[in-house]
Amino acid sequence: MAELIGSESPENITGTPENDQIKGLSGEDTIFGLDGDDTLIGDDGPGFNVGQSGQNDSIEGGKGNDSLFGSGGDDLLVGGADNDNLDGASGNDTLIGGPGNDTLFGGEGFGSSGNNVLFGGSGDDSIATGFITDSFAFGGDGNDTLTGSDTGSDTLIGGNGDDSINGNNGRSFGSNTLLIGQDGDDTINGGSFSSNNIFGGRGNDSLSGGVVNDLIVGGIGNDTIDSTAGGNDTLTGSSGADEFIGINTITDFEPGIDKLILERRGSIYKEFALTEDGLEADEFSIVDDDASVGSSNGFIAYSLETGNLFYNQNGAEEGLGSGNQLGTLQGIPSLTNTDFAVRDTASF
Predict the structure, then answer these.
(1) How many alpha carbons lie under 13 Å from residue 96 in its C-beta half-sphere?
(2) CA distance 302 to 314
(3) How far is C-alpha 227 from the chain's CA centre?
């Protein structure tokens, strides 16, 4: 293995066809690894500039399975061919994986704040924007996994392939995140406390919101849209036979094509038998207005005045009991008992 070490001055450093380790030190360096499985470091070592200022390095791996580490500056990291690992550290970095199954990480630790741009390229890539960032990530071709930052406002786009997209890591408070699947059968999870705009794109997608207010659009294909995490969500299936779990506000429900899914959770919906073929006729009531819901007979009541849908836990008894309003169907479509399915949730 060849070991090359730069200086405090800006330099152009080129490796050998073998497996190289190159350290640029504190200059504003351009590093090219050539062939071999190289480790290319913008400064003294991985994590050296976390939370500190640094120079703007340009690092390219070339052929081979390379590991590239940026500095505290605004770095450009290009993996090249094969399966590469890219870590931007802190700063506003641009990471490009290229061909191969690459791992891209915008930055590490509390000091990794920055606005990163990450491109996976072809291959099945794993992309994480970093800890505190407002970043843009695009998976490209392949079945990619994209994860947003804990507290930033990210844009994550899957590209072609069956992608998995997570708005944040499920622990923190990301906000105003844009998540787009594009082509393929994608799985998109808005994360925990982030407000998301989620678009499935083309394909049969599984889309889940977070605990605050989300906009979720299925796109072309037979999509499953889950808004049970919480918040006042707006849901649009678009074309295809779509399933809505947790109703909130649905803009385009198509009776006879789409389905409203009631998930039995503990004592919730315990009145219903499991079915994919619709509720029993006496379990569903249509009433003239919201004021008549409490005196309806069905466990599910639908108001023709507003399009509001209610869970009437008391059934034929007066009042809703422990029930409540489930959501609103905009346009007041002609709903029937056959537009429902009842399932058990895996959580209970």
Answers:
(1) 12
(2) 15
(3) 14
In DSSP terms, 32 is beta-bridged to 14, 60
H helices, E strands: number in the chain: 0, 32
Q: Which residues of 263-301 are buried (b: 16+ CB within 10 A; e: fewer)?
A: bbeeebbebbeeeeebbeeebbbbbeeeeebbebebbbb
Angle, CA of 21, 142 and 216, to the nearest 5°: 120
Tracing tokens 């094969």 back to the chain, one arrives at 82
Return d(Cα 145, Cα 162) in angstroms, integer: 9
The pTM of the full predicted model, rounded to 2 decimals, is 0.90
Long-range contacts of 146-154 (CB under 8 A, 24+ apart): 148/174, 148/177, 148/179, 148/191, 148/194, 149/106, 149/174, 150/174, 151/175, 153/177, 154/129, 154/178
What residue ranges do the domains of the chain occupy? 261-344
Q: Which residues contact 146 (CB under 8 A, 6 or more apart)?
A: 127, 128, 137, 139, 156, 157, 158, 163, 164, 165, 166
Could you report the per-residue pLDDT of 276-327, keeping only the tens digit for each? 999 999 999 999 999 999 899 999 999 999 999 999 988 778 878 878 999 9
Mean pLDDT on 113-142: 90
Burial group, residue 156, by CB count within 10 angstroms (0-12, 13-18, 19+): buried
51 falls in which pLDDT band (50, 70, 90)? very low
Tokens found for residue 121: 């390229």
Give residues with Cβ within 8 angstroms of 219, minimum separation 6.
Answer: 181, 199, 200, 201, 202, 203, 205, 238, 239
Residue 177 sits at φ, ψ, to 5 deg, of -90, 140
Label residue 44 by pLDDT band (50, 70, 90). Answer: low
Eight-state DSSP code of residue 283: G
pLDDT at 319: 78
Read off φ and ψ for residue 52, nearest 5 degrees.
-120, 165
Taking residues 119-143, what's their average pLDDT?
A: 93
Token code pair at residue 63: 């052929």
Relative to beta strand 325-329, strand 308-311 is: antiparallel
Express each pLDDT in 208-266 by its tens digit: 998 889 999 999 999 999 999 888 999 999 999 999 999 899 999 999 999 999 999 88
Residue type at position 244: F
